[in-house]
Amino acid sequence: MSVTAGRGGGLLVAGTTSDAGKSVVTAGICRWLVRKGVKVAPFKAQNMSLNSYVTREGAEIGRAQAMQAAAARVEPSALMNPVLLKPGGDRSSQVVLMGKPVGELSARGYHAGRQEQLFGTVTECLEELRRTHDAVICEGAGSPAEINLRRSDIVNMGIARAGRLPVVVVGDIDRGGVFASFFGTTALLSPEDQELIAGYIVNKFRGDVSLLEPGLDMLRDLTGRRTFGVLPFTHGLGIDEEDGLRVSLRGAVRESVVASPHGADVLRVAVCAVPLMSNFTDVDALAAEPGVVVRFVDRPEELADADLVVVPGTRGTVRALAWLRERGLADALARRAAEGRPVLGVCGGFQLLGERIEDEVESRAGVVEGLGLLPVRVRFAAEKTLARPVGTALGERVEGYEIHHGVADVHGGDEPFLDGCRVGAVWGTHWHGSLESDGFRRAFLRRVAQAAGRAFVPAPDTSFAALREEQLDRLGDLIEEHADTDALLRLIEDGVPAGAPFIPPGAP
């Protein structure tokens, strides 16, 4: 791939809406390019997500960018997601800059000035990636036509204009109105921004493409811009989600192996859908096991037939604790513990299972009584713990990552469990991602099945890493088989095409 000396090619994948498929398309392009021998990196200037990841250098970035880096077969870096916003409520977020938290800001405060102050950092990161890679595939956020936020935009047309990046807009046709969305998105941009819009990608199409082609021809006549591909609706293609209640691998694995348990029984896992739930991707590895059925729940009666209940991470431990009590889930968890029925708490879920929480950082609620199911006292520290620990549990090697302000004082228990403990059938740890370690996951599920009285046997050959690679290859196949890859390669290599017409009215 020939590129300008000292500066790799680039592309921005924007979307008509949130969840149009930007993350999937970006990952797919990265995997397609790396299979062609192109040194490629993903980039998202600003991400808003409660699902995050810790890089080897101890930086916190969005999990979607970590998975896109895996698609590109490069090590994740803070350069790939310099600004991460972690919502702490409806109106405020923790701002993570270059992998480290720098404070809490309201949405108004962020868009009123702080965002523009970060623009220099964002452009420097993009340029560093372009100096060290043949191509950088950037992902936008929401829609580039958010006209109320355009002046402070650093993730869509702001970064595209700064880097002279051609832009491809993805639209989800399964929602309907994709032609209006493509046209309206383009027509609401200023002439300078419209100049960068190279064309469109239709996502999640069902049916006969020949029936769509007249519309694509009309769209080209109306906008002067081509469509670079029509991607079919395919189950199980989501990568680690930014927000929402999807289990990213569950769909893909369910179609192939989960319907046939290895043993006589299935194992039912209920995940408490606590407020501000974070890194719920932890349960993907459970869902990858043949015979394990995972569902999210928010009522106590939904715990009755569960063989394992998972209390996941949360950005609001005290708030989640109150929510569990209000809904009767706290009492249901206590009954499970008394009956010796398995419960697993991860990170914030581990903290609220303890005796006491002292929080002057996250909720500023002071001392709050926990559920008292584990001999743990938690104090929230101002400095966030970001780590990639390695250890042993249940006789198996375990790798994980930590993202938390809470410092746990474990003063008892039947046995240690990673950095936490076990009491009876209640387990707790700060470690995210531990269940991705195959041997440990199987050992843990055997213990759960024994406690639950289920004739469930973990499959001996399930490799979570291999399943993830298969999924990323499927994303690459999607681009290679259903997009005009020659045209995309020219776009990445040559930059913004000349001569695209202005579509009135433009930005108001």
UniProtKB/TrEMBL annotation:
Entry keywords, A to Z: Cobalamin biosynthesis, Glutamine amidotransferase
Active site (record annotation): 347, 432
Protein name in UniProt: Cobyric acid synthase
One of the GO BP terms on file: cobalamin biosynthetic process
Family stated for the protein in its record: Belongs to the CobB/CobQ family. CobQ subfamily.
Ranges for domain CobQ/CobB/MinD/ParA nucleotide binding: 12-244
Top-level taxon of the source organism: Bacteria
Domain CobB/CobQ-like glutamine amidotransferase: 268-438
Origin organism lineage: Bacteria, Bacillati, Actinomycetota, Actinomycetes, Kitasatosporales
Gene3D superfamilies documented for this protein: 3.40.50.880, P-loop containing nucleotide triphosphate hydrolases
